[in-house]
């Protein structure tokens, strides 16, 4: 499979066949994982470093699991992001990683572009696990796999991405992936949380849930990213839920068989009601986590085929 580079830094720039191939490979890993088998020969002798400058539960553990199921040696490095001079820290870190002869480097950072900077300095294949407001490509791939498995396709579906679009790298990667694959994408939220460039990204913008959800096949909820806000963008959590929270009554505005997604972590009662989040007939939230491991195995598999260590 030909990805545009030896790294996976973004969904933007990937072509439909490249995305479809990654999803097909991930699909085979779903079956492998469900069978309880592993494929430990694939990455035997390779080193994967999880370098996280920001908190993470699902993403870090699923990269760890994915690496281990393929036989890689996995090392988790959690680094404080409080350093004043982030550029210098990153470049120092790159030197250390090169000295360790790491093959695959998974990076999460609160600065957009940090994985790109590292990719220019390390010999390893770099995977962006979320950078600032920019992208979170493996999340979009796992979301697409989850939708495709349930609906059999991405093309022609109406997907409503709701909430804090402005601060969400998940939304950005999903918008690129879903529009590339022919879905109709809507973003729904208060004007303060919708980025100015939204319309340019080929999505429809709505400021009320009732309008944005009308007839939608997929409703994707996002967390309010308070840690990235300077305050004043939303009223109280209770007020936010009243206008933009997803409960059963609101979900009824969407298509009758609409499915609910959330990348996690969820703030129950803020953007989503527990009854909806935990409804096995409507919620794909657990399945998203399962798909996350398979997608990351597919990405590690694909990139390791072309990764070359500088020895
Ligand atoms: C997201 C992230 O970190 O961008 N979480 C995730 O990876 N599943 C979304 C969020 O933090 O709200």
Write the topology of this structure:
Blueprint: H1 16-35, E1 47-52, H2 58-69, E2 73-78, H3 86-99, E3 104-109, H4 114-119, E4 125-131, H5 137-151, E5 158-162, H6 169-180, E6 184-188, E7 204-206, H7 209-213, E8 218-221, H8 237-244, H9 248-251, E9 259-261, H10 274-277, H11 285-306
Parallel strand pairs: 1-2, 1-3, 3-4, 5-6, 5-8, 6-7, 8-9
Helix pairs in contact: 1-5, 1-11, 2-11, 5-6, 5-11
Residues 58-59, 130, 136, 139, 169-170, 223, 225, 263-264 line the site of N-carbamoyl-L-aspartate (NCD).
Characterise the protein shown here.
- 39% of the residues lie in helices and 14% in strands.
- The protein has 311 residues and is α/β, with parallel strands linked by helices.
- The protein has a 5-stranded parallel sheet. Strands 2-1-3-4 form a 4-stranded parallel sheet.
- Strand 5, helix 6 and strand 6 form a beta-alpha-beta unit.
- The structure holds N-carbamoyl-L-aspartate.
- N-carbamoyl-L-aspartate binds next to helix 2 and helix 6.
Q: Sketch the major β-sheet.
A: 5 strands, parallel
Strands, total number: 9
Q: What is the percent of helical residues?
A: 25-40%
Query: Which percent band covers the strand fraction?
Result: 5-15%
Residue stretches low in confidence (pLDDT < 50, at least 5 long) are none
Small-molecule components bound: N-carbamoyl-L-aspartate
Shape: globular
Q: SSE order in H/E notation?
A: HEHEHEHEHEHEEHEHHEHH
First-to-last CA distance = 25 Å
Number of helices: 11
> Main sheet: which strands, in order across?
7-6-5-8-9
- Overall average pLDDT: 93
Structural Rg: 19 Å
What structural category do the secondary elements indicate? Answer: alpha/beta
């Amino acid at each position: 499979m030909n990805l545009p580079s030896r790294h996976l830094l973004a969904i933007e720039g990937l072509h439909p066949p490249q995305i479809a191939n990654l999803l097909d490979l991930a699909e085979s890993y779903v079956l492998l994982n469900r069978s309880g088998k592993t494929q430990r020969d694939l990455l035997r002798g390779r080193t994967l470093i999880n370098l996280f400058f920001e908190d993470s539960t699902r993403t870090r553990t699923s990269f760890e699991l994915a690496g281990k199921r393929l036989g890689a040696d996995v090392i988790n490095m959690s680094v404080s992001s409080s350093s004043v001079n982030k550029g210098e820290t990153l470049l120092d870190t790159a030197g250390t990683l090169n000295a360790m002869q790491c093959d695959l480097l998974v990076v999460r950072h609160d600065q957009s572009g940090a994985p790109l900077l590292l990719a220019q300095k390390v010999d390893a294949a770099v995977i962006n696990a979320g950078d600032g407001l920019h992208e979170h490509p493996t999340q979009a791939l796992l979301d697409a796999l989850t939708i495709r498995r349930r609906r059999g396709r991405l093309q022609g579906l109406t997907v409503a991405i709701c909430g804090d679009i402005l601060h969400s790298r998940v939304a950005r990667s999903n918008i690129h992936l879903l529009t590339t694959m022919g879905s109709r994408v809507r973003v729904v939220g208060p004007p303060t949380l919708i980025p100015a460039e939204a319309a340019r990204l080929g999505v429809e913008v709505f400021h009320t849930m009732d309008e944005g959800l009308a007839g939608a096949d997929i409703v994707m909820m996002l967390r309010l990213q308070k840690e990235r806000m300077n305050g004043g963008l939303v009223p109280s959590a209770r007020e936010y839920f009243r206008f933009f929270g997803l409960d059963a009554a609101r979900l009824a505005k969407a298509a009758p068989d609409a499915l609910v997604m959330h990348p996690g972590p969820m703030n129950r009662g803020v953007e989503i009601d527990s009854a909806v989040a935990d409804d096995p007939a409507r919620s794909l939230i657990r399945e998203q986590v399962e798909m996350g491991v398979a997608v990351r195995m597919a990405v590690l598999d694909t990139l390791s085929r072309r990764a070359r260590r500088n020895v």
